[in-house]
Amino acid sequence: MATFLYKLGRLAFRRRHFVALIWVALLTLAGVGAASAPPAGTTSFSIPGTEAQKAFDLLEERFPGTSADGATARVVFKAPSGETMTDAGNKATVEKTVSDLADGSEVASVADPYTGNAVSKDGTIAYASVKYDVSGMELEDSTKDALEDAAQQARDAGLTVEVGGDALQAVPHTGATEIIGIAVAAVVLVITFGSLVAAGLPLLTALIGVGIGVSSITALASALELGSTTSILAMMIGLAVGIDYALFIVSRYRAELAEGREREEAAGRAVGTAGSAVVFAGLTVVIALVGLAVVNIPMLTKMGIAAAGTVAIAVLIALTMVPALLGYAGRRVKPTGAKSRLLGGAGKKNDAEADGKPAKANLGTRWASFVVRRPLAVLLLGVIGLGAAAIPATSLELGLPDDGSQPTSTTQRRAYDLLSEGFGPGFNGPLMVVVDAKGSDAPKQVFTDVSNEIKGLDDVVAVTPPAPNKSGDTATITVIPDSKPSSVQTEDLVHAIRDAGGDIKADTGAETLVTGSTAMNIDVSQKLNDALVPYLVLVVGLAFLLLIVVFRSILVPLKAALGFLLSVMAALGAVVAVFQWGWLSGLMGVEETGPVMSMMPIFMVGVVFGLAMDYEVFLVTRMREAYVHGEKPGQAVVTGFRHGARVVTAAAVIMMAVFAGFIGSSESMVKMIGFGLAIAVFFDAFVVRMAIVPAVLALLGKKAWWLPKWLDRALPNVDVEGEGLRTAEERGSGPDEDRELART
Fold first, then answer.
1. What does the angle CA 162 – CA 164 – CA 165 come to, to the nearest 5 degrees?
2. Which one, of 166, 46, 230, lies nearest residue 406 by Cα?
3. CA nearest 398: which of 290, 491, 468, 536?
4. I need a labelling partner for 163 at 20 to 30 A (CA). Which of 14, 194, 325, 488 fits?
5. Pairing mode, if any, of strands 160-165 and 72-78?
6. Cα 173 from chain centroid?
C-alpha cells in the first residue's frame, strides 16, 4: 500500500492542476445539485420490529385518510388572573381562534376546547388541538404563519397563548460557536506549522471536503428522506477528520523536507507513510459509522452512512488534493524545525541545528521518556482517573427529548408547562392504545374490557371511551398517565398495558398495541439498548482485525480497544454529569436536565471508536516504523512521540474545538453529541493515547509486537510503516535482513 500511495502522492504533486480541477468541479457539481434540489420533505422515523411501529402501521391500514403522520399543534390558552376560560369574553376569543385555524388549506381538523372537554378543572387553562394533512417539515410557511397569527390575536385580546406540538418545529441551527471552533482550529494550525500557508492547507481541504459532502446530502435529502440533523452531524465529523487527516500529511511532508528530500519526493513519501495511517484510520471511522445499520433504525442508519461518506471524501482529499496544494505552495511550506517569518525566522533552522549541535528534545520526547521510566505509575493514574470520570455513567437514564426538554424561551416549552399545570404532567405524553379485534366474535365487548382493564392500572389519570373505525373491528383508546412522558413510571405503565393486552389476547384473540410518541420513545430506547452489545462486537471486532493487519500484533490492537472502552465510559460519565445531573449546565447552555438521549451511547461508541483509532494509528505506526527499522521497544516509543506527539496534540485540540463548536446548537441532540465527542476526544487523546498507550507498550517491551508465525505468513503485508519506500542506503542492510527484522 505504501508504494501505491507514494506513487499517487507524486502524481498528485506533478499533476496538481488536473487534481485541483477535479475537486473544484466536484464541489461545483454538488453545490449546483444542492441549490436545485427540492426542499427536504418528511423524515420517516420508523422503528421496524417494535410494537409502537406495528400499531402505527395498523392505524394507517384501518383508519385510512386520518393522516396519522400529519403535524399536530396544541394551542394552549390561559385566562388572566381572576378570570376563567368559560367567561364570555374569553370563550368568544377562543372560538374565534378555532374558527380562524379551521380555515387553513392544510388543516385536517380543529377540536374546540368547549365541546371536547379540554378545559382544566379550575377553568383557567384550555387547549385546542389542530391536526394537519402533512408533516411538520412539509407545512407551508403560510400555514405556520396563520397558526402564529391566530395565537397572537388571542394574546392581543388578553389571553396567555402558547403553541405546542411539531407544527412549528424549526430546522436546528448551530450558532456562532461553530465558527469559533473553526477559528480555534486555525490558530492551532498556525502555532503548529508557524506558517499561514501550511496552516491554511488543512482548513481549505477540510472545507472543500465538507462542502462536497454536505451539498451532496442536501441534494439527496428529499429523495432519501434525510433529516436536518444528518447534514449537521456529517459536517461535524467531516470537518474534524478532514482537518486532522490533512494535518497528518502536511506534518509528514515537512518532516521529509527536513531530511533533505526534494519536494515531489517528500510529497510522495508523506502520502506513502502518513497517508497509509490516514487510510486505515479512515477505514475504522467508516466501519464504525456504517455499522450503525445493525441497530435497524433507518434514521440512524442514514445518519451513519452520510457521515461515513463525508469521512471517505476527507480521506481521498488528504491523499490527492493535499499533495497537489503542497505543489502550489512550493517553498512557502517550510521543513520541520525551520521557522517562518511569521514566527520571527527567515526560513532557517533553529540555532542549535545551524551550529551543528543536537536539537533540544521537544516536549513529546521528554514526556515519552518519563513514561518509559515510570510506566506503572502513569498507567495506574490514567486508569484510575478515567474510572473516576466514568462513575456518573452508572446512573445513566435514557430517553428521547420532547417539548419538556426545550429551552424555556420557546413557545413549545411554555405550552408544555401550561398543559402540565392545568391537566397534569402526563397530559403531555398521552398513550394511544390500538385494539385489533378483527378475529373476535364480540369486538365492542373487547373494546370495553380493554378500557376497564387499563382504568384499573396504577399511574392512570384518565381513559377515553373506545373510538372504533368504520368497520368496527379496530378501536383506539387514549390513556393519560399521571407522570411526565420521560419518567420511569410512564414506562412501567406502557409495559403494564402490554402485559394486560397479552392476557386479553389469550382469552379473546384480540390484539392490544400501545403507540404514540411516548411509547415510540420507550421502544427506541429498548431497541438501542438491545443493539449496543452486538454493535460493539461487530465494530470492535472488525477494527481489531484491521489493526492486526496494520500493526502485525495481537496485543497492540487489544490495548487500543480496551483504551477506547475506558475513554468512552468516561465520556458517558461526563455527559450524565452535565445533561442529567446538571453540573456546569449553565456554562453549556443546558436549560433543562433530564434523561440522556437513547441514541447517545451507541452513537458515541461508533464515532468515538473511529476517531480514537485515528490517534492510535498515527502515533503507534510511527513507533512501529521505528521498531521495524531497528530501534529497541522503549526507544521506539520515544521516537514515535518525538515525531507524532505534537501533531496528535494539535489534531486533538482541533477536533475538540470543532465538536465543542456544536454545543451552541438549538437542537438538543446535536448539543449533547457535540459535548460528548469533544470530551471523549480529550480523554482518549490526552489520557489514553498519550499516557496509557506508551505506558503499556513500555511494560510489554518486545511482546507488544508479537505475532504468531503462521498468522504473520497469512496476513497481507500492507507496509503501513513505508519499509518498501526505503532505499538500500537508508536500510543499511540487505533485504533478507530487513525482512527478518520486520518479523521480529
1. 160
2. 166
3. 491
4. 488
5. antiparallel
6. 15
Handedness of CA 510, 515, 520, 525 (dihedral sign): negative
**In which band, very low, low, confident or very high, does the pLDDT at 11 lie, cut at 50, 70 and 90?**
very high
Tell me the mean pLDDT in the region 256-281: 88
Average pLDDT in the 231-252 region?
Answer: 85
Nearest to 227 by CA among 306, 292, 289: 306
Q: Which residues contact 212 (CB under 8 A, 6 or more apart)?
A: 23, 26, 27, 30, 313
CB 707 within 8 A of CB 557: no
DSSP of 244-291: HHHHHHHHHHHHHHHTT--HHHHHHHHHHHHHHHHHHHHHHHHHHHHG
- 325/333 Cα distance (integer angstroms): 10
Cβ atoms of 256 and 10 closer than 8 Å: no
Run of H or E including 127: strand 125-132
* Helix ranges (DSSP H) in 158-227: 177-193, 196-224
* Residue 154: all three cell numbers together: 388571542
119 backbone dihedrals φ, ψ, rounded to 5°: -120, 135
Give the single-character DSSP code of 15.
T
Return the closest-CA partner of residue 679 out of 660, 658, 651, 654.
660
**Enclosing H/E stretch for 379:** helix 375-390
Residue-level pLDDT at 337: 66
Pick from 502, 492, 497: nearest CA to 515: 497
**Contact at 8 Å (CB) between 1 and 720?**
yes
Q: What is the pLDDT of residue 679?
A: 93
Cβ neighbours for 741, distance < 8 A, ≥ 6 positions apart: 628, 629, 630, 733
Reported as type and span, the H/E element at residue 435 is strand 431-436
Distance in angstroms (rounded) separating the CA atoms of residues 134 and 104: 12
Q: Do the strands 398-399 and 596-597 form a parallel or antiparallel pair, or are they unpaired? A: parallel
Give the number of residues written for the chain.
Answer: 744
Compute the distance between CA of residue 569 and CA of residue 82 in angstroms, rounded to an integer: 53
Taking the C-alpha atoms of residue 282 and residue 307, their distance in angstroms, rounded to an integer, is 12
Environment class of 456 (CB within 10 Å of its CB; exposed 0-12, middle 13-18, buried 19+) = exposed
- DSSP character for 171? -
> 339 falls in which pLDDT band (50, 70, 90)?
low
Among the listed residues 393, 310, 409, the one whose alpha carbon sits nearest the alpha carbon of residue 572: 393
